[in-house]
Amino acid sequence: MTHVTQEKWSSGMAFLLAAIGSAVGLGNIYRFPYIVGQNGGGAFVLLYLGVVLFFGIPLIMTELTIGRRRQLPPIAAYGALAEGMKSRPFWKLIGFTNIMTPIGILGFYFVIAGWTLNYVYSMITGQLSNLVEGQTQTVFAEMMNSPVTLIFWMTLAVLITAFIISRGIKAGLEKAVNVLMPMLFFILVLLVIYSLFNGGIVETFKFMFYPDFSKITGETVLEATGQAFFSLSLGSATMMVYGSYLPKNESIPKLACGVAFADTFVALIAGFAVFPIIFTNGLDLDSGPNLVFVTLPVIFDQMPFGQVFGILFFMLLAFAAITSTISLFEPTVSTLEEKGICSRPVASLFAGIGLWCLAGLSALSMNVLSDVRLLTFTETVAGKNIMDLLEYMSANAMMLFNTLFAGIFIGWMMNRKDVLEEIGLGDSLLFKFWLTIIRFVVPVVVGYLIYAFFAGKLSS
Ligand code: TRP
């Protein structure tokens, strides 16, 4: 039951923009700087780069291949590729867990995307100007305590995303990234130029690139891997689905490198936009999740052209978030459409309503539902409200689980001729290197991470 009319990207470039749009998100601009700050800088950055190079790129290639081989979304793709295998039902189940993961991620991601929209608005209307010390904390806390505010902005994020998705690949996704991505890069460049003129660049350089290896612990390694996988949109159907729309003549290894390079570049540049402000103002490097929403607005309020800078910064975050929510939303719609359950617009509507409910629960879990615990089977999960639990399960556990099995499937189960043809490197040394990483290194490392995760060695 192959879906015959499945749309394709109009070119490799169109795919690249959309995939970079997916990868570049809150993970790069919101999370990366604060995680680097918390983990002591250079050594963490170096580790991160190693993970992207040795695991990230090979795994993007893996997921694109699984998607493109039969040009189907995950459940159908695994089902078709596992045809004739005894373990076929298991692989279809893996396809299903792949689909569920972006749903879980959107459950919290939509809420944060809403914060960014709210902050753009607050910046423009001057609600974050002329604040006295400590007041940005109050503004942030007021937002978190207000179900109406949180749900209003989250709803806007859901509506924008569902609308874009409902229009299809070329008229929806491509058009959106064609507008949003150039603006995103433009703003990023402006912000860095501004930083260059305001000092703190030398300190930033030292902090980000001078490794102090005493800062590396087992946990840092886990943290760097989790961050890299999340930032590269791995382990959650996105790359498989985007790969399924990729024309057959485009080179998967080249595109995978392009996505990884751009994503990593933006994360590093985001560091260069944020850290100079921290250094020149003598702020705390490890303020964690508060960094962007509480610490930075204080500075925007004080520096020359701070309001303009602030508006641009939060617009950047909002654009990055929306191109990512699109990619997290698409797998569900693609699956419903392929199964012939409903048309794309109807699928977008239903998925939108479902995700709105889930994200609504997340939003409420920071105020009225803050005491609700859905799972209590370990001490770690028992401490988490709904939003934190969704993040913990989807962005950590399920993502690792899906990547592990994607690696095992392509490395050990799939027909080698199919893999060779799809990767398009011939039976070269490079191909063998890739295959070795996928067959041996990924299962051991990711398998260990999953173990460490459940043994409670991984925080957050
Ligand atoms: N990579 C995005 C970010 O850094 C988030 C994202 C989009 C994602 N699609 C994904 C994460 C798929 C995991 C899986 O913000």
Give the helix/strand layout:
Blueprint: H1 12-23, H2 26-38, H3 42-70, H4 74-81, H5 88-124, H6 135-145, H7 147-166, H8 169-196, H9 201-209, H10 218-231, H11 238-244, H12 252-280, H13 290-302, H14 306-338, H15 344-364, H16 379-382, H17 386-413, H18 416-423, H19 429-454
Helix pairs in contact: 1-8, 1-11, 1-12, 1-14, 2-10, 2-12, 3-4, 3-9, 3-10, 3-11, 3-12, 3-17, 3-18, 3-19, 4-5, 5-7, 5-14, 5-15, 5-17, 6-13, 7-8, 7-14, 7-15, 8-12, 8-14, 9-12, 13-14, 14-15, 15-17, 17-19
This protein binds tryptophan.
Describe this structure in words.
- The protein has helices at 12-23, 26-38, 42-70, 74-81, 88-124, 135-145, 147-166, 169-196, 201-209, 218-231, 238-244, 252-280, 290-302, 306-338, 344-364, 379-382, 386-413, 416-423, 429-454.
- By secondary structure, it is mostly helical.
- Tryptophan binds next to helix 1, helix 2, helix 5, helix 10 and helix 14.
Main traits of this protein?
460 residues; mainly alpha; Amino acid/polyamine transporter I; 76% helix; 0% strand; binds tryptophan
